[in-house]
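Quick start: read one record
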Amino acid sequence: MKTKILLVDDHSVIRHGIRSYFKNCDDFEVIAEADCGERAFKALNAMNVDLIFMDISMKGMDGISATKMIKETFPKIKVIALSMMMDSDYIKNMVNAGADGYLFKDCTEEEILKAARAVRDGDSYYCSSATKNIISSYKEKEARPANANDAHFVLTLREKEVLRLIIDQCTNKEISEKLYISPRTVDAHKRNLLDKTGQRNVAGLVMYAIKHKLFSDLKA
């Protein structure tokens, strides 16, 4: 069964370009388009969608507001931000709204397909530039003093290994192969990491690790 995609962008040329990337895919199908958040939400009430590529800056309801509303109403639908917005605040706002991935519009067809498959399979996908922007924004701020009650003090060694590989953008399958554990065990460690750190998704875990200096070798 093909993964059904909704494209949300106020520029028809962008939607046309993204649609063309999936034209010959056996595992994806673009079934609808929308030029704003309101129309995207209406489309979801009329059809079954699995994955959304969401622009941020649009007339009417923007991508951040639309993503938040969609995630609250249709939590199983995956959302990948596809935007020109490179400011770390936009990226963090999309992450906090529940986005499962973030790509810049100058990314390649190969990366769009890679992100779509990763998110479809239960992983998150944030392009390296987005991750670097988040890291840079946190390094510009002074980290708060360590507290013995902080969650990272109770992370197990295995959880820290999984977190390190998540930051390196490894998929669940890659993590399982590197650590010789099952994908189901990787999922369990991810859930534990999210619960212990109070984060909503993988990007939140990356920000948490940067903020608390868990890995000193991280570079912007």
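The longest strand covers residues 28-34.
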